[in-house]
UniProtKB/TrEMBL annotation:
The gene is glmS. It catalyses: D-fructose 6-phosphate + L-glutamine = D-glucosamine 6-phosphate + L-glutamate. The keyword Metal-binding does not apply. This is Glutamine--fructose-6-phosphate aminotransferase [isomerizing]. Its EC number is 2.6.1.16. Catalyzes the first step in hexosamine metabolism, converting fructose-6P into glucosamine-6P using glutamine as a nitrogen source. One of its GO terms (cellular component) is cytosol. Keywords: Aminotransferase, Cytoplasm, Glutamine amidotransferase, Repeat, Transferase. It comes from the Bacteria. The active site is at K361. Homodimer. It is found in: Cytoplasm.
Amino acid sequence: EKGGYDHFMLKEIHEQPKAITDTFRGRMLADENIIKMSSVQDNLDKFLNANRIIIVGCGTSWHAGLVGEYLFEDLARIPVEVEYASEFRYRNPIITDKDVVIAISQSGETADTLAAIKLAKSKGAFVYGVCNVVGSSIARETHAGAYTHAGPEIGVASTKAFTTQITVLTLIALKLGQANKSLSDERFKNYIQKMQLIPSQIQKLLNIDSKVKEIAAIYKDAKNCLYLGRGFNFPVALEGALKLKEISYIHAEGYPAAEMKHGPIALIDENMPIFVIATNKGHYDKVVSNIQEIKSRAGKIIAVVTEGDVTVKEIADHVIEIPETEEALTPLLTTIPFQLLSYHIAVMLGKNVDQPRNLAKSVTVE
Ligand code: F6R
């Protein structure tokens, strides 16, 4: 059942190329230059005329929603807000029938997300679900939706569910961007071509496992870690920190890199590993200067960079290279090393990787 892997989490990390390919299937028709999603097509007016899209979710699914915010705004020029389902439902939110709510949930059973959907529906919003579990409560409660075809996710720490959620959100954003002409034919085509490469790029990226393991061995005894990223990779920093916390029980925080100097920089000393996403298109120069600030305070830098990077390589203590792609698609790649890192640290510390203490796979109580 674990397919030769020691843990479900490792199996699920390695399943990502296939899971994303399955999520593409029947939807991304590259030769015809179209994205076919009847759940979006049938409701195109609602999406295109929406005042805004509100994305709700919890935990990792909320992080996918944050990536969605960058995607929808950049590719389709539709305003987006992302909310924790638990906060949204209790703060008397202003919702009208001109709003579209996208609810994201792997299990489709999260109590707060389900309650947020019911509330949004009662105010007249159109509610679209992005779920993994077929026939789940959230899948049934939403007006329309798209399944992530990740297959069963057994490990409590979400991995392939996250990347397939981002995949679905990217497909929707591209489809809307094409429909409202925010994306030229040329840009749309280019994105589709780059999307198609993602599964094989992840496959290749998984070969960094031994390198990540070496880094894990060096930093496994850290008491605190920081994860920094900007733009599309800010949510990846949050997700990297969450993965480390939940399975290794090491305290970790994710921050947008520029926020570092507004507080967390006070924590930096030679015992503090800092994981920085510094891929080449995403505000690269700004991230490089953040890295220099950390170095001058003796912090240890582990940087995720684009293949062929030279500048960060010279300053960072360790670098992990990801293949080149469009900036908007980098979260699908930059996420992978952090999943592997958390996995290896948790194994080295003797933790129960698939069943971390105090956590449940689906949170059906608020
Ligand atoms: C993190 C994790 C949780 C879930 C959260 C939402 O690895 O698994 O943070 O992402 O409980 O769960 P779903 O997506 O099932 O609504």
